[in-house]
Write a structure and sequence with these properties.
Helix content: under 10%
Strand content: over 45%
Radius of gyration: 21 Å
Number of helices: 4
Number of strands: 29
Structural class: mainly beta
Distance between the termini: 24 Å
């Protein structure tokens, strides 16, 4: 089901995604723009669901069916949901997506297993090494998976390249707890702490000796949750509250994203200069969007259907002239937590050039003829003439 809500009755020009990142003026335009669309991804028959990451037109997360959590993959619609849980698996969750791969955890024979998929339950690969008790995969980028394993009484940050045998331990000697929460290119982000010490945000450059501490001096606790290009995001605890946070490679680069009215906040993901998370404002946790500063905060809850209350924005991806934000919210009508997808931008700018012209039309026709996933323009789960008609309507409207 698709819902479109307006923040005002004024019609404004929708900026293309390439033009909206990294500026305060642009984030204000996002907040004022009435052309936000929200798609309910909640699968039919599920008791609850959440989308926790998005990339390349895909969303991942989980849905609770008959009391059991099932790892799930969407392609922009409720009907597109695919259950990734392999045979014999229970309590499964997909936590990261990228490059046609999905990662997460599945419980097999009573133990959590770090998991890798390529779009189907049958494609499941167990990344857990034989010497680990339990393990989980949290993130993926460029064919590299990040996560953690528990062995020898310690949780250890690790990375893989597609198999259990490829594992690389990132935990430095003497560290009692560490885990990878995000990967991008040649580096990884996450947390670590020494025995009896503080939990500290950090990043690695692919080895146990490459750890970079991101912990700000004012913090009693810090957590790095995601990364893209030169930016890392997460949250920092100080003055009795959590603060959504942004770094650019060092502890001294830390930026507090929480505006003054936000009493508690977390940042979960970043892409192309946009950060997403959740913040407590006026007694309600609100799905949130930033563009690098506290002043740029956008309350995404105002675009949810009217039956929704609190929520979280968990993943963000900018592509095809559009911003996609994956998350979930509480539907008061059903009493269920439901997966949702916020969409903003000029979808007719199919080649992301910043303009709508015949190059966009030609690019869509090529995708349509090849049957690629981005040609499923109406998010039905199929590429058919309805997609062509929908694109033509948007193309003729322009931006």
């Amino acid at each position: 089901m698709t819902s479109t809500r307006t923040a005002s009755s004024r019609r404004v020009l929708i900026p293309c995604a390439g033009a909206i990142i990294s500026s305060l003026a642009a984030s204000l335009a996002l907040a004022a723009d009435p052309h936000w669309t929200v798609i309910r991804l909640h699968p039919a028959g599920a008791e609850s669901s959440a989308a926790v990451a998005t990339r390349g037109g895909q969303q991942v997360g989980y849905a609770v069916v008959n009391g059991d959590s099932r790892a799930g993959l969407w392609n922009g619609s409720s009907a597109s949901w695919v259950d990734l849980t392999p045979a014999g698996g229970i309590q499964a969750m997909a936590l990261g997506v990228g490059g046609g791969q999905q990662v997460g955890t599945v419980t097999m024979d009573g133990n959590a297993r770090a998991s890798l998929w390529t779009g189907t339950a049958e494609s499941w690969i167990d990344l857990t090494p034989p010497w680990a008790v339990v393990a989980g995969a949290t993130s993926v980028h460029g064919g590299v998976q990040g996560g953690w394993v528990y062995a020898d009484g310690m949780t250890q940050a690790v990375m893989w390249t597609g198999s259990a045998e490829s594992i690389i331990i990132l935990a430095p000697p003497g560290v009692s707890y560490s885990r990878v929460n995000g990967v991008y290119g040649d580096y990884q982000v996450g947390v670590y702490h020494q025995p009896g010490g503080l939990t500290r945000a950090c990043m690695w450059l692919g080895s146990s000796t490459s750890l970079i501490d991101l912990h700000p001096a004012v913090a009693s606790y810090s957590y790095a949750a995601g990364a893209y290009a030169e930016q890392q995001v997460g949250y920092v605890a100080y003055n009795g509250a959590n603060h959504a946070s942004l770094w650019t490679g060092s502890a001294s680069s830390w930026v507090d994203l929480a505006p003054p009215q936000m009493l508690d906040s977390y940042c979960h993901a970043v892409h192309m200069g946009l950060q997403v998370g959740t913040g407590l404002v006026d007694g309600k946790y609100r799905p949130s969007l930033w563009a690098g500063t506290p002043e740029s905060w956008v309350d995404l809850s105002v675009f949810l259907p009217e039956t929704f209350g609190s929520g979280r924005a968990e993943g963000v991806w900018v592509g095809g002239g559009t911003v996609y934000i994956a998350g979930h919210g509480l539907n008061y009508m059903t009493g269920q937590e439901e997966a949702v997808l916020w969409i903003h931008g000029c979808r007719a700018d199919f080649d992301s050039s910043g303009y709508v012209d015949t190059d966009d039309y030609d690019a869509f026709v090529r995708a349509f003829e090849e049957g690629t996933p981005n040609a499923d323009y109406d998010w039905s789960g199929f590429v058919d003439t309805d997609d062509f008609d929908a694109y033509v309507r948007d193309f003729e409207k322009g931006c």
